[in-house]
Every structure is written in structure tokens, then in C-alpha cells.
Design brief:
The complex is a heterodimer of chains A (320) and B (372). Chain A has eleven helices and 14 strands. Chain A is of the alpha/beta class. In chain B, 66% of the residues lie in helices and 6% in strands. The chains are: A alpha/beta (320), B alpha/beta (372).
Chain lengths: 320, 372
């Protein structure tokens, strides 16, 4: 059994593009009595941009640290580029780039010194792989003499990405790269990821922001150490069978309370300027909700049916 | 090999960029050499004494004069009431009370024997012993003169006695500073090396930088050696700096070979820093490293023989000291600096330090985990 496994996973190049870059089979991680992740299985194809979506404490970081060979799984198997994370961690470390959730570069070294250090310990130079990081690095190059600790959040993130890419990894693993970053930088960052993906790099990225799910090729929704669903964002939405209503009025706070107090309401969440409502009876029409809300004296009321977005699906999956 | 060089380059940049590190490297040796060496003295001077002379005879005055003339004692109070004297002792105004009773001289003349009382403050046991020994010396000298005088023997023909002419090798003046300085230096390099390297390693854990480092192909031994070498250099620099201060400030003779001394120091530091790094691989915060390292330092220093000779310890403690790197280094420092011992005189120390160094360094490398 073991030998066949090994043969199956000993290929590090993917000529036909069908190979799996990341394979996770029934991985469980237990800290004493606490289960951090429970029986997680999924795979990421070569060149795919795969998202792990989930709230804080879902087990995303634990899973990534297992893949990065920093943590041993209690049970189960995991392979990166066909290499076993338990046994072939030395080879894996050459193939992957990792950007931890917390800024982990040397704050007392300059931008350039950090990049140079990580290039040299991987046995390469900045010049050799400059092409790969050029787009990102040019934005921080004017500050290359500045200490990393003195950079702004967005620039730190770009430096961290540059350092994770400097040895030209096949697989890039990013742990909540956009947490604590402003909206513009977040958008820029995802554009950068898309460009890296075009260069053939497999990307595994985790995020607590559900609106970023739509930017991935495929996503896995994680909660409490388990994967709730894995699919492409459009298919996840397609599979959602519930009827969804949106409502708004002048007093949003009272509106959401009133909707939640209605006996036909299943869930009600604020999404931007609207309240998204699912009802216990999926055939219920918008006018019924409107009638109820009018009886509660809401003004400038708008109620209509909408097609669900991926966030609605996740909210539903996480509460059911 | 090249990877180690890159790691070293990074470590040195960080050390010299650290604002607290440089003052520590320069300030600690100056402070320790110029203050501790003087302060850690066993010499006894200016012991205050209270004389209760109820006899007021020529014999009692002669005795008082003997104490007065000694450089070790200082008669600060005199009186007639033993109670007042005791009170002064209790309030620590004086360290010794000498009570000369009435008829002291008369008793001496009639019975050839008289008694006086010494009361010594023994809060500090070793100091009390020293005071007693010095006082006893003075009393014996007084006795001898008295016998000579009263038995009518001329002073230039004293009674026959053995004359002791001591010769103190390797420290002829018995200068305690020469004795203390090498010992203090041994502690200095240990503190600098062990603490700085240990704290540096665990700081990578605290800041999370180790996370990024662990996913690189850096090998465990490369990482540990990278943490070791910069601080060995810094400690050696401080050793040289401290020796220079000792040479300039109190003329410390450096009899032995300096290359030998620094060779041994390097070997010792590998062990001491290995222990510091081992501790920090087990710890998660700089605080933990501080406390645990401090504990080991205390035990090692107090058992290392800086203040008290190891030969005075119980046998089991002496056996335990075989594991104490400071014990060996203390001996090496004193023997090479004061006595000029060569390598062949220190083969036991050499072998022991090799074993200790390999052990601690291997433990550190073994315990450092890239994967948990």
C-alpha cells in the first residue's frame, strides 16, 4: 500500500496539467484533547487558485502549517507536489513559498536585506528570480533601504509576498494575507495573485472575508475544524436552493429586529444596505414580508426577491 | 557552509543595529571590573573595637596600644561599662568588644595568668573568624613580650621559637584583586554569551520570524551555529576588553599565554552558549529564558569557586562540580593568568570542556525543532 502511494506521489513535474499540487487525505490534528481539525480531505490542482474560507478559529492556519511541514498531522496524509509532508519535508521546503498570517520578516533588517537573506538561504539571488517578483517589488523598491518594521501594512504585505516568491516556488501558501489591509490594497493584492497564477504557480490562500471567495477558482468553506463544502464559487451558489428576500427601510436596526421577530423568518442578516432574509417556507413571496413590515410602520420600505451570492450560501451553511 | 555565512551576516547586522546590545557589550565589563573586583574583597581592615578597660594599669594600656597599632583594628570607643559596650555591639557600631577586668595586671604578676574577654559580632561568620585570628595574633605577640620583659630576659635575646617566613607564590602581595579579576571575567563572559545568545534565539520565536525561517531549507545545525558564533565573538571581545581594564586599573599580571587563554575561552563558550541555546529551544519567551538561565548561572557561579575554594566543599559537591563548566573555566582563568599554566597542565579541563561543549551543543541542535 505504502509503495504504491509513493509511486503515485513521487512526480514533482506536471506535464499534463492534471496532477494534483496539494493532496490532503483525512487529516486530523489534535492538541491534547482539543481537535483543531477533523478528518479534512481535499485536493488542489496544479495552477489552481484555491481558497480556504472560514471564520477565526476554523482551523485554516493549522491546516496550512501542516502543509508547510511546520506541524505534524495527528492522523491522515498530506502531499505537496506529490511529496509526503511527514517524510519529504526537506524537498517540500524548496518547492513552496509561505506567507504566515503574522508578519514574520525581520523588522530590524531593511527591505533589501530581508529579500537578500531569504534569497540566499534558498541558494538563489534576487537577480535570478527578479522577473517573478518585479510587479510587486517595484512598488516597494523606492523604500528598499527602509527597515521592514517601519513599513506600512500594505507594503509589509508586499515585501512578505516578495520574500515568499524569491526562490520561485511551485506552490504558494498564503495565510490570511489580506487581514488588516485596506480595501484598495486588498484589491491590488488579489490582482497580484491572479498574475502569479498565470505564471503557473499553484496558490492556496485562506481568508476570513467571504467576499473574497468569488475571486478563487475553487473554495473550501471551513468551520470548527471541518470542511463544510468544496466547489467553484458559481456552483456553490447554484446548489443553493433557498428562496432569498432583501429588504431595506429608513430604520435598519428596527427592521432587522422586526424581521427576526416574525414567526415566518428563518434567518436575517445585514448585507451592506439590505437585510437578507430566508423564510421557513421557501415559497413565501416578497409581498407577504412587505405587508408584515408595513404593519410595523416601516417607511420607505423596499422588499424584493434576489438571487443569492456566495456569502448568503456561507452564512446559511455556517448556521445550519 | 555558505548558508552559515549568510546567517552570520544577518545576525551581525542585527546585533549591531540593536540599540541595547552595544551599550551592554561595553558597559558591563567596565562596571564589573571596576566595581565588583574591588567590592568582592575578603580583606579585613578597620575593624571597629570597643575597649572596656577596668584595670587601667600599664599592662592593660600596653595591650590597648598593641591593638591601636594594628592596621586591622581601630579603637573607636572606650569605657568602663560592659553593658554600654554590648549595646554598641548590638547596634553594630563596633565589631568587637575587648573587656579587660580589674586586677588584670595584678593577676598576671601573681598567677602568671589573667583573663580578658573578646566578644565578636559573628553575623558574618568568615569575617568573625578573621577578626578572631587577627586579635589572637596580637594577643600572642603581647604574651611573648610580656614573658620576655618580666622574666628579665633582654629583648634582643628573645626565647627560642620557630620563625615562619611565608612566601606566597603567584600572588606574592596577596592582592585579592588579582585573585578576583580572572574570576569576575569568567562570570562576565558567561553572562554576555549565555544570556545574549539564548535571548536572541527565543526572540525569533516571540516575533514569529522563526516561522518564516523554518520553511526555508536552513538546517538545524546551521541555525544553531549561526546563533552561537556571533555571541562567542562578542564574549571573546569582552574578555579582551575586561583583561585590558584589569591590566590598566590594577596591574593584573598576565603571566600565561593569551592565545591559550582565548582558545580555552572559545571552547568554554561553546559549552556555555550551547546550554543557553538549549534552554531557549525549550522556552517560548525571553522571560522564561532569563529565569532558567539565571538559575543555572547562580548554581554554576556559587559552585564554581569564585569566592570559596572548591576544595572546602563536601565531597559530593565536588563531584557535582565536574559537570559545572564555570568551575573549569575559573581554574583555567586563574591558572593561566596568574600562574602561567600551559596546555599540558590543563588537559583535564580541556577534556572536560570538550565533553561539556559537545553535550550542550548537541542537545541544543537536537531540541531545536523546525516541525512540532
Amino acid at each position: 500500500m505504502k509503495t504504491t502511494n509513493k509511486q503515485e506521489h513521487s512526480v514533482t513535474s506536471y506535464p499534463d496539467g492534471k496532477q494534483e499540487a496539494i493532496t490532503v487525505q483525512h487529516v486530523t490534528k489534535r492538541y491534547n484533547d482539543v481537535l483543531a481539525i477533523t478528518d479534512v480531505s481535499f485536493s488542489v490542482g496544479k495552477g489552481e487558485l484555491f481558497g480556504l474560507i472560514g471564520p477565526d478559529g476554523a482551523g485554516k492556519t493549522t491546516l496550512m502549517r501542516i502543509l508547510m511541514t511546520l506541524l505534524l498531522p495527528t492522523e491522515g496524509e498530506a502531499y505537496l507536489a506529490g511529496l509526503d509532508v511527514r517524510k519529504e519535508y526537506k524537498k517540500i521546503r524548496h518547492l513552496v513559498g509561505y506567507m504566515p498570517g503574522r508578519f514574520s520578516l525581520y523588522q530590524d533588517l531593511s527591505v533589501e536585506e530581508n529579500l537578500e537573506f531569504f534569497a540566499t538561504v534558498f541558494g538563489t539571488t534576487i537577480q535570478e528570480n527578479y522577473d517573478l517578483i518585479r510587479d510587486i517589488y517595484v512598488q516597494i523598491e523606492p523604500f528598499k533601504k527602509r527597515l521592514a518594521g517601519k513599513l506600512s501594512g500594505g507594503m509589509k504585505q508586499k515585501l512578505a509576498l516578495s520574500c515568499a516568491l524569491i526562490h520561485k516556488p511551485e506552490i504558494l501558501v498564503l495565510d490570511e494575507p489580506t487581514t488588516g489591509v485596506d480595501a484598495v490594497s486588498r484589491k491590488e493584492f488579489w490582482d497580484m495573485l491572479k498574475r502569479l497564477q498565470k505564471q503557473g504557480i499553484t496558490i492556496l490562500v485562506s481568508t476570513p472575508y467571504m467576499d473574497e471567495a468569488g475571486l478563487c477558482d475553487r473554495v473550501a468553506l471551513m468551520q470548527k475544524g471541518q470542511i463544510m463544502t468544496i466547489d467553484t464559487p458559481p456552483r456553490i451558489v447554484e446548489n443553493y436552493q433557498r428562496n432569498l428576500l432583501a429588504a431595506r427601510s429608513t430604520d435598519m436596526h428596527r427592521l432587522i429586529n422586526d424581521i427576526r421577530n416574525w414567526d415566518k423568518t428563518d434567518t436575517a442578516y445585514a448585507f451592506g444596505q439590505f437585510v437578507h432574509v430566508t423564510t421557513s417556507d421557501d415559497n413565501l413571496e416578497a409581498v407577504e414580508l412587505e405587508r408584515y413590515l408595513l404593519s410595523q410602520n416601516h417607511t420607505q420600505l423596499q422588499v424584493f426577491e434576489i438571487s443569492p451570492g456566495i456569502e448568503d450560501v456561507f452564512m446559511d451553511l455556517m448556521t445550519s | 557552509m555558505r548558508t552559515i555565512l549568510y546567517i552570520l551576516q544577518k545576525e551581525f547586522i542585527q546585533v549591531f543595529r540593536n540599540r541595547t546590545m552595544l551599550p551592554m557589550i561595553f558597559f558591563i565589563p567596565i562596571l564589573q571590573m571596576l566595581i565588583l573586583v574591588f567590592a568582592a574583597t575578603n580583606d579585613l581592615k578597620n575593624v571597629n573595637i570597643y575597649i572596656v578597660d577596668n584595670d587601667l594599669s600599664s599592662a592593660s594600656r600596653k595591650l590597648t596600644d598593641k591593638f591601636q597599632a594594628s592596621p586591622f583594628f581601630r579603637i573607636t570607643q572606650t569605657g568602663f561599662s560592659p553593658d554600654d559596650a554590648e549595646d554598641a555591639l548590638k547596634r553594630e557600631k563596633v565589631d568587637m568588644v575587648i573587656s579587660i577586668p580589674e586586677k588584670f595586671e595584678a593577676d598576671l604578676r601573681r598567677d602568671d595568668e589573667a583573663q580578658i574577654q573578646l566578644i565578636i559580632n559573628a553575623i558574618n561568620q568568615s569575617k568573625a573568624e578573621l577578626i578572631y585570628n587577627y586579635a589572637n595574633n596580637i594577643l600572642q605577640g603581647y604574651n611573648k613580650n610580656l614573658i620576655a620583659e618580666w622574666k628579665g630576659l633582654p629583648e634582643f635575646n628573645p626565647p627560642k621559637q620557630i620563625k615562619v617566613q611565608p612566601s606566597f607564590w603567584f600572588n606574592s602581595e596577596l592582592d585579592y584583586k588579582w585573585y578576583m579579576a580572572p574570576g569576575i571575567l569568567a562570570i562576565l563572559v558567561t553572562i554576555i554569551g549565555m544570556f545574549l545568545s539564548g535571548m536572541n534565539l527565543v526572540r525569533e520565536k516571540e516575533l514569529g520570524t522563526i516561522e518564516q525561517l523554518n520553511v526555508t531549507p536552513i538546517k538545524k545545525y546551521q541555525f544553531i551555529v549561526g546563533k552561537l558564533i556571533p555571541f562567542v565573538f562578542i564574549a571573546l571581545f569582552d574578555l579582551a576588553f575586561g583583561l585590558t581594564i584589569a591590566r590598566l586599573a590594577f596591574d593584573l599580571p598576565i603571566v600565561g599565554s593569551l592565545p591559550l587563554l582565548f582558545g580555552f575561552a572559545t571552547l568554554y563558550l561553546v559549552g556555555a552558549l550551547g546550554l543557553g541555546l538549549f534552554i531557549s529551544t525549550l522556552a517560548d519567551t525571553q522571560q522564561q529564558v532569563m529565569f532558567v538561565s539565571f538559575f543555572f548561572m547562580m548554581v554554576f557561579i556559587l559552585m564554581g569557586g569564585i569566592f570559596t575554594p572548591v576544595e572546602n566543599m563536601p565531597t559530593w559537591a565536588q563531584y557535582l562540580d565536574r559537570l559545572n563548566p564555570i568551575y573549569y573555566f575559573m581554574r583555567i582563568m586563574r591558572n593561566v593568568v596568574l600562574k602561567g599554566s600551559g596546555f599540558t597542565d590543563l588537559t583535564t579541563e580541556f577534556a572536560s570542556l570538550i565533553v561539556i561543549g559537545i553535550t550542550f551543543l548537541s542537545l541544543a541542535i537536537w531540541r531545536y525543532r523546525k516541525t512540532t
